[in-house]
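Budget justification aside, the reviewers requested a transparent look at the raw inputs and outputs of the sequence design task funded under Objective 1. We therefore reproduce one unedited record. The lines immediately below are the structure tokens for a 351-residue chain.
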């Protein structure tokens, strides 16, 4: 018999913020690491597909899933030490990321303020190295603990082992987030005691200047970020969405220069590797898709990068819109967009 924390034939609409419908054969609500260890030794678990779920805020549900959804809800956050330069904090996988950031600020440990408001759990944060307004979780990650679901062994990954990149990590690159190879159970962050404000993103600097703030506190930066996000990114409880639907494309310096020649307003951000990051939202808007709908989905009127479910949308609707937007951007700019959310599929057609 399966443990009582495993439910069967579970409707997944409440488990993905885009609110796409599908069923999972099994869904395990994991609140302690011991439950996970007990489950992976269970005969019902062996040989079945598994998928590790946080809060479903970056998830595209493509259809019914005939395996185990491991819903990581492990709570807990604590100070674990400090030295002359840093404070060290451990946070369990199931903690809400933004609430955790707010807690660090309340405790007087600044550093994460630019990352407030990013949806999702702490355990999911390193997988795509979440980032916003010129900071990313990789700037602070010290190490993480993961359970190898095939071997039942705990493994510590030092930040260097995680091979973090721009919205990327070893976990993502190896497809471990799709295959359910590891469940991240805890992350450890290192916050510098020598705090400095990160205000290089134009919108932050402009808002602070408008408010007459010259030397902002961490709390003031968190307030500005919260306000900026609230203006543009719809609350999934009111309008289901999965945050940014496409990654910002990185192109060669030559292509960026050619595009800039024909489109002088195109925002371009040179990268350390010589490539140039383009703003996907700008490309979508100038390909005519900002605020436009197709079927039951659309690209949001305030933030063209956010695909929204207008009510009762299916994965098929999402697929059609994603293709239409990608084709329009490619036809206009010769740039390919890549969807950002993780696909939960039982062999369904990828986007
Ligand atoms: P924005 O300020 O309109 O800027 C558009 C894009 O240009 C952003 O995606 C950003 O890239 C890039 N950019 C802007 N200023 C930059 C600078 N000084 N240096 C380098 N790149 C710069 O962006 P937005 O759509 O309103 O989003 C604001 C921030 O929230 C962005 O950092 C965005 O990534 C973040 N955000 C993150 C998520 C997520 O993690 N899933 C979801 C929504 C928004 P970057 O994206 O690389 O920062």
């Amino acid at each position: 018999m399966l443990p009582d924390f495993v439910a069967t034939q579970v409707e997944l609409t409440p488990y993905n913020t885009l609110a796409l419908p599908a069923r999972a054969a099994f869904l395990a609500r994991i609140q302690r690491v011991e439950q996970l260890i007990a489950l992976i030794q269970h005969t019902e678990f062996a040989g079945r597909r598994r998928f590790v779920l946080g809060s479903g805020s970056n998830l595209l549900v493509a259809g019914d899933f005939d395996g185990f959804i491991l819903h990581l809800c492990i709570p807990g956050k604590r100070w674990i030490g400090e030295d002359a330069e840093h404070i060290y904090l451990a946070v369990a996988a199931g903690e809400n990321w933004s609430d955790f950031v707010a807690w660090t600020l309340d405790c007087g440990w600044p550093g994460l303020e630019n990352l407030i408001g990013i949806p999702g759990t702490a355990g999911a944060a390193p997988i795509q190295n979440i980032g916003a307004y010129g900071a990313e979780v990789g700037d602070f990650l010290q190490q993480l603990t993961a359970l190898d679901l095939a071997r039942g062994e705990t493994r510590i990954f030092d930040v260097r082992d995680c091979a973090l990149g721009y919205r990327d990590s070893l976990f993502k690159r190896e497809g471990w987030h799709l295959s359910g190879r590891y469940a991240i159970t805890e992350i450890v962050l290192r916050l510098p005691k020598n705090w400095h404000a990160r205000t290089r993103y134009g919108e932050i600097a402009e808002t602070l200047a408008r408010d007459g703030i010259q030397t902002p506190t961490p709390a003031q930066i968190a307030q500005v970020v919260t306000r900026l996000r609230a203006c543009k990114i719809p609350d999934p409880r009111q309008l289901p969405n999965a945050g940014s639907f496409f990654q910002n494309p990185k192109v060669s310096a030559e292509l960026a220069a050619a595009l800039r020649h024909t489109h002088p307003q195109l925002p371009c951000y040179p990268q350390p590797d010589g490539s140039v990051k383009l703003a996907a939202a700008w490309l979508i808007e100038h390909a005519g898709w900002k605020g436009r709908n197709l079927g039951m989905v659309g690209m949001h009127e305030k933030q063209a990068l956010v695909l929204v479910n207008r009510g009762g949308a299916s994965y098929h609707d999402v697929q059609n819109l994603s293709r239409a937007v990608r084709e329009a951007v490619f036809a206009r700019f010769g740039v390919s967009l890549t969807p950002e959310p993780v696909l939960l599929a039982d062999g369904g057609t990828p986007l």
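The first helix runs from residue 33 to 40. Residues 202-232 form one domain. Computational costs for records of this kind are itemized in the attached budget.
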